[in-house]
Design brief:
alpha/beta; disordered C terminus; about 55% helix; 21 helices; eight-stranded mixed β-sheet
């Protein structure tokens, strides 16, 4: 989970502050020392930490804070505001040319996930911004780089332009002509990377930049490399002039130092973050929302946006109506399973939930095997049995078990979980919304229901 270590340490500092009725300058000073240590342990650069703590301390020492009835909350707000400012203040959007096609040039070192994230970003701007992107294979050196771009492009149903081992500058130029002829309004250049920054690499990138005049140059960096990512961003910006950063593998970086240092070091914004390996796991970077996540307050806006993008609104309305009429069937249960699978990694969703809700889901993941068993059992039933599970007597249960290759005990377990879910839905009609609603079968802390559990694997 991104920023996990930093988040825990900062929240421990704030718990101590909340325990005091009034704050003294000594209280603030002690808290700031802890904040400084937390940031340094998160691999944030020393200069950034020093400036950050000095700014927070100055504002937190003000009389309006120390004499306030809720001083701890005011200190937390100051830290939140300063974190937001440190990461750029506001979401930085992509810049598009006034006359298409716009050229987005993706650069970076090898191993940062550049080729995959070219496709991820193209898929995002197509689905969320209505663009018609063209992927362009300008990496003619790395073995199988062209094939990799074709594979990820094919998985997202995106067109890929390639000219084999030709001159990358010529490939970029020809791709723009191709885009104009085929109605593509964004050209995404997957340029060659290197194991380290060298003059040959930079010269080629400069020639491509001069030839196609990109509206965006985005540097792809690996969050898990910490300050090396910041150093790479600084070097690329000085040599090439970047417009923004795509920070990958943020889900695997428990420290988060790169995200907190890049803007301060380069003056260039983080525009997108990669949050997982799947090709839809990329999202715009919102500094205020990330600050909220770091401070344990969740990111409800991003959660709502994700739900709106992935969940079927019409199905949700029908389900709500059936629940209100107390007609939650196994067919509805199955539909809930399919909708839950669309949301993806539960641990990523946990980061967006505030306080206790997030902690209850932290470390969670869906067990694909158990999910498959649940689907198989339900699909082995007749439509009538799904609508009215009371029809399932001993002989019918044996038939269902044989039909899906499982045991009767597995069928009974599913029916028991369904009954528990039914009881939960009844509380809706009494005006009580339980924690598990919307996440079918997800029990409270330590709970185990239809394929979900806690920590290492949800069983």
């Amino acid at each position: 989970m991104a920023f996990e270590g930093l988040s825990e340490k900062l929240n421990a500092v704030f718990r101590n502050l909340r325990g005091k009725g009034r704050l003294t300058e000594e209280d603030i000073s002690v808290a700031m020392r802890e904040v400084r240590l937390a940031l340094l342990e998160a691999d944030v650069s020393y200069k950034v930490v020093k400036d950050f703590v000095a700014s927070v301390s100055e504002k937190a020492m003000g009389q309006d804070v120390l004499e306030s009835l809720t001083p701890a909350q005011q200190v937390i707000k100051i830290v939140s505001d300063e974190l937001t400012a440190l990461m750029g203040g506001a979401n930085a959007r992509l810049t598009y040319a006034s006359a298409p096609p716009s050229v987005v040039m993706m650069v970076g070192l090898q191993g940062a996930g550049k080729t995959t994230n070219v496709a991820k970003l193209a898929g995002f701007i197509r689905s969320q911004q209505g663009k018609r992107p063209l992927l362009v294979a300008c990496d003619v050196y790395r073995p199988a780089a062209i094939t990799q771009l074709q594979v990820v492009g094919g998985q997202l149903d995106l067109p890929v332009f390639e000219m084999g081992q030709a001159d990358p500058v010529k490939i970029a130029q020809e791709s723009i002509r191709y885009a104009r002829d085929h109605g593509n309004d964004v050209v995404m250049l997957d340029t060659a990377g290197r194991l380290h920054i060298d003059e040959e690499l930079m010269d080629e990138l400069k020639r491509i930049k001069a030839a196609v005049k990109p509206s965006e140059i985005l540097l792809v960096v690996d969050a898990m490399t910490g300050q090396d990512a910041v150093n790479a961003a600084t070097a690329f910006d000085e040599a090439l002039g970047i417009d923004g950063v795509v920070l990958t593998k943020l889900d695997g970086d428990a420290r988060g130092g790169a995200a907190l240092s890049i803007r301060a070091a380069t003056g260039k914004p983080i525009k997108f973050i990669g949050t997982g390996e799947k090709l839809d796991m990329i999202e715009p970077f919102h500094p205020d929302r990330m600050a909220s996540r770091i401070l344990g307050m969740g990111d409800v806006l991003s959660l709502i946006e994700k739900a709106e993008q992935t969940l079927d609104e019409e199905k949700a309305k029908k389900l709500e109506e059936r629940i209100r009429k107390n007609r939650f069937t196994l067919s509805d249960y199955y539909e809930q399973l399919l909708e839950l699978k669309k949301l993806g990694d539960l641990s990523h969703i946990a980061e967006m939930m505030p306080g206790q809700l997030g902690r209850q889901l932290a470390g969670a993941e869906i067990d694909p095997k158990t999910m498959a068993h649940t689907e198989a059992i339900i699909l082995s039933m007749t439509p009538e049995e799904r609508e009215n599970p009371k029809l399932l007597g001993a002989s019918r249960k044996r038939r269902v078990a044989a039909g899906c290759g499982l045991e009767v005990v597995d069928v009974n377990r599913l029916l028991k979980q369904y009954e528990m879910m039914q009881e939960l839905t009844k509380s809706l009609t009494r005006g009580k919304l339980p924690l598990s609603m919307g996440v079918p079968g997800l029990g409270g802390k330590g709970g185990k229901m239809h394929g979900f559990g806690r920590r290492k694997r949800l069983k």
